[in-house]
TrEMBL record:
<keyword id="KW-0255">Endonuclease</keyword>
<feature type="region of interest" description="Disordered">
    <location>
        <begin position="208"/>
        <end position="230"/>
    </location>
</feature>
<dbReference type="InterPro" id="IPR005759">
    <property type="entry name" value="Nth"/>
</dbReference>
<dbReference type="Pfam" id="PF00633">
    <property type="entry name" value="HHH"/>
</dbReference>
<keyword id="KW-0238">DNA-binding</keyword>
<dbReference type="GO" id="GO:0140078">
    <property type="term" value="F:class I DNA-(apurinic or apyrimidinic site) endonuclease activity"/>
</dbReference>
<dbReference type="GO" id="GO:0051539">
    <property type="term" value="F:4 iron, 4 sulfur cluster binding"/>
</dbReference>
<keyword id="KW-0227">DNA damage</keyword>
<dbReference type="InterPro" id="IPR003265">
    <property type="entry name" value="HhH-GPD_domain"/>
</dbReference>
<dbReference type="GO" id="GO:0019104">
    <property type="term" value="F:DNA N-glycosylase activity"/>
</dbReference>
<dbReference type="InterPro" id="IPR000445">
    <property type="entry name" value="HhH_motif"/>
</dbReference>
<feature type="binding site">
    <location>
        <position position="204"/>
    </location>
    <ligand>
        <name>[4Fe-4S] cluster</name>
    </ligand>
</feature>
<feature type="binding site">
    <location>
        <position position="198"/>
    </location>
    <ligand>
        <name>[4Fe-4S] cluster</name>
    </ligand>
</feature>
<dbReference type="GO" id="GO:0046872">
    <property type="term" value="F:metal ion binding"/>
</dbReference>
<keyword id="KW-0378">Hydrolase</keyword>
<keyword id="KW-0326">Glycosidase</keyword>
<keyword id="KW-0456">Lyase</keyword>
Length: 230
């Protein structure tokens, strides 16, 4: 794929989802970091339901450390892996207080040192909280990129990110991330993609495969039977 083809894809997706944005509710970098940490293997919709109460109860790193981890577990128990995430939130808050004066750091190198924060989470925080261009490759971005040919089927998450960064101007990285997520979340779904009405079907090998009519297999016994009757 070249940059012109990628530009076409993003223009089409923009027409489909002109308001693509971060759907995790937050009011500051700290809340966003916690929300993204909670979103691993969980929908943004569920995270937003949980954080509606969570962010009223806990507003600072100190607040999360003022309760037993078991209480925090109960506060987020509707979210998958809630025990592990509760422990990581408290470890993250302790590190923020001990190393960063209670503030979320702004660089990827510092963010990925925080417990529970990987490269994807760091990219989301950098781009949405601090305005630093970044492409966070989640399952939607990875799936769409591979289906549309921006990345190879066997590329790692990091390879997908690097290829997208080469195909898209730096100033458009964050918006590209949001558009690909919306396209994957609401149209090019993992199980039931909207191939029949997809404006990008011509460039999608997966879509073309799905849209092929099923091959009708002739029953060998029936064919032989018909032949004998003749």
């Amino acid at each position: 794929m070249n940059k012109k083809q990628m530009r076409h894809i993003l223009d089409v997706i923009e027409d489909m989802f002109p308001d693509a944005h971060c759907e995790l509710n937050h009011s500051n970098p700290f809340e966003l970091t916690v929300a993204v940490l909670l979103s691993a293997q969980c929908t943004d919709e569920t995270v937003n339901k949980v954080t509606a109460d969570l962010f009223r109860k806990y507003t600072r790193p100190e607040d999360y450390l003022s309760v037993p981890v078991e209480e925090l577990e109960q506060d987020i128990r509707r979210i998958g892996l809630f025990r592990n995430k509760a422990a990581n939130i408290q470890k993250l808050c302790r590190m923020l207080l001990d190393v960063y004066d209670g503030e979320v750091p702004r660089t990827r190198e510092e963010l990925v040192q925080l417990p529970g924060v990987g490269r994807k989470t760091a990219n989301v925080v950098m781009s949405n909280a601090f305005g630093e261009p970044a492409i966070a490759v989640d399952t939607h971005v990875e799936r769409v990129s591979k289906r549309l040919g921006a990345a190879a089927p066997d590329d790692s998450v990091l390879e997908v990110e690097r290829k997208l960064m080469k195909l898209v101007p730096r100033e458009a990285w964050t918006l590209t991330h949001h558009r690909l997520i919306f396209f994957g979340r609401y149209h090019c779904k993992a199980q039931n993609p909207g191939c029949a009405v997809c404006p990008l079907l011509d460039g999608c090998k997966e879509g073309k495969r799905r849209m092929k009519p099923p091959r009708i297999r002739k029953d060998k016994a029936s064919t032989q039977s018909i032949g004998r009757k003749g």
